[in-house]
Design brief:
The protein has about 230 residues and is an alpha/beta fold. It has helices spanning about 1-30, 55-70, 110-120, 150-160, 180-185, 190-215, 215-225; strands at about 35-40, 80, 85-90, 95-100, 125-130, 140-145, 165-170. Helix 2 (about 55-70) crosses helix 6 (about 190-215), helix 3 packs across helix 4 (about 150-160) and helix 6 (about 190-215) runs antiparallel to helix 7 (about 215-225). The N and C termini lie far apart (about 60 Å).
């Protein structure tokens, strides 16, 4: 009889510990601050002549993410609003505002600052999607801060925010250009070989954005920064 009671007590304690662990895992989702917003900014240039160019990889990832999170019940659609194309959706209870600035690359900071203020998005919830010639095609690097590295879009964002303490997801576009041809290169179209490399990486970049929103930049960097 005593052995049965002891086994029952052990089983009861084990189940209580297991229940506590399961409950603690669910707790962060239960405590979501539904008033908190995130701003995702895909950098690029508007206009048909810029579609599919290396400088517009930020637009490409933003468009891919919009399709990824869209459902027949809640389709994600872009609307032309002040200084940007804008859309809004939710990821696991969190509100995400995503924009593609219409200010052209060199004045991207105007759209970023305006929508951060309008939507009341804290700077730690800002993520910028940007092309990077210092990285091989399709390579992903998320960073929580840093200089613009000569990128005019990032430089303007830094100038208007007054600091560079914002998260950015850099997507490599390579540097296969001769001296003095950098502008022609970034404003040029991806080759068919590059597009084949990019396709799975664009999907991976979308996953990285969702991880940033739901689990934070540190976890996103650990999971998605290319080795």
């Amino acid at each position: 009889m005593w052995e049965k009671k002891r086994n029952f007590a052990s089983c009861f304690i084990y189940n209580m510990i297991l229940f506590k662990k399961l409950f603690s895992r669910c707790k962060p989702e239960d405590n979501i601050d539904y008033s908190m917003k995130y701003l995702i900014v895909g950098l690029g240039n508007v206009g048909g002549e810029y579609e599919g160019t290396r400088h517009n990889i930020g637009f490409m990832v933003a468009d891919a993410l919009a399709k990824q999170v869209s459902t027949p019940e809640k389709p994600v659609k872009w609307s032309l609003e002040r200084r940007a194309y804008r859309t809004e959706f939710r990821i696991k209870g969190r509100t995400v505002v995503m924009i593609k600035p219409t200010t052209y690359m060199n004045l991207s900071g105007e759209a970023v600052r305006y929508w951060m203020q309008t939507e009341k998005v804290p700077q730690e919830n800002l993520l910028v999607l940007v092309d990077d010639i210092a990285l091989p095609v399709g390579t992903l690097r998320m960073k929580k801060q840093g200089s613009g590295g000569g990128h005019n879009g990032l430089g303007n964002i830094e100038a208007l925010l007054g600091n560079n303490n914002y998260c950015r997801l850099r997507i490599g576009v390579g540097n296969n250009f001769s001296r003095g041809k950098q502008i022609d290169y970034v404003l040029g179209q991806f080759t068919s070989e590059e597009l084949a490399q990019l396709e799975p990486q664009v999907e991976k970049a979308c996953d990285a954005v969702q991880c940033f929103v739901t689990q934070g930049p540190d976890r996103a960097m650990n999971f998605y920064n290319s080795k």
